[in-house]
Amino acid sequence: MKRTMGLFLVLAAAALAAACTNKQGETEAPVFITVNLPEQPGFVDIAIVAPVQVQTIQLASHLKNPNATDPQGFNNVTIENYTVTYRRTDGGTIVPPVQSFGGGVLVPAGGNATLSNYPIMYASAIQGTPFDQLLPFNGGIDRQTGKTEIDTAFDLTFFGHTASGMRVQSETASGILIFHYGATTAGTRAKK
């Protein structure tokens, strides 16, 4: 009887854990980080080989227990790094590899941090696959879609730890990037 009851309790706990969709509870830290991207790059000209940056990223720390306080700062979060993944939104499937960047920012418990001009793509990736297809000497069109632009979405996630050593992973924020070769457009306009 005890074994049956113990097995039932284990199965019930597993079922409850599987049904949990609380993203804020994914780490043991008493805080969670939200990400806001009020200004996104949007159009990216691959003729200009430079990192793609987000002009403003806002990080906000929230205490999981709204009645808690942290006067000692044990729940301040040091962002160590962040990753960016890409998805095609135009029907294509080829995307750049996941890119990782250093963080180096402190988000106070219950406070905010504003990041300016943080990169979401290295300059070298601009002329790599799949964007290299848009270069004039490679045909100037994406072979998967037949378009002169490549439409993507990016997903941005920050990772760090609290001052007390607990790991923290932010929510994932998404944005859009539309890649094109602008020198062709500028040349066409100049001829008219």
Itemize the secondary structure elements and their pairings.
Elements (H helix, E strand, L loop, with lengths): L1 H18 L11 E9 L2 E4 L6 E12 L13 E12 L10 E9 L4 E10 L1 H4 L22 E14 L4 E3 L3 E8 L1 H10 L1
Describe the protein in words:
The chain has three helices and nine strands; from the N terminus they run αββββββαβββα. It starts with a helix and ends with a helix. Strands 2, 4, 5, 7, 8 and 9 form a six-stranded mixed sheet that branches. Strands 1-3-6 form a three-stranded antiparallel sheet. A hairpin with a 4-residue loop joins strand 7 and strand 8 (167-169). Helices cover 17% and strands 42% of the residues. The chain has one domain: Immunoglobulins (Immunoglobulin-like, Sandwich), CATH 2.60.40.10. With 192 residues, the protein is of the alpha+beta class. The longest helix has 18 residues, at 2-19.
Q: H/E order of the elements?
A: HEEEEEEHEEEH
Name of the CATH architecture: Sandwich
Through-space gap between termini? 87 Å
Q: Round the Cα radius of gyration to an integer and report it.
A: 22 Å
User: How many individual domains?
Assistant: 1
Largest sheet: 6 strands, mixed
Helix percent band: 10-25%
The name CATH uses for the topology is Immunoglobulin-like
**Residue-averaged pLDDT:** 84
CATH evolutionary superfamily: Immunoglobulins
Number of DSSP strand runs: 9
Question: Helical region count?
Answer: 3
% residues in beta strands:
35-45%
Which residues sit in consecutive blocks of at least 5 with pLDDT less than 50? 5-25, 185-192
Main structural class:
alpha+beta
Overall geometry:
elongated
CATH class call: Mainly Beta
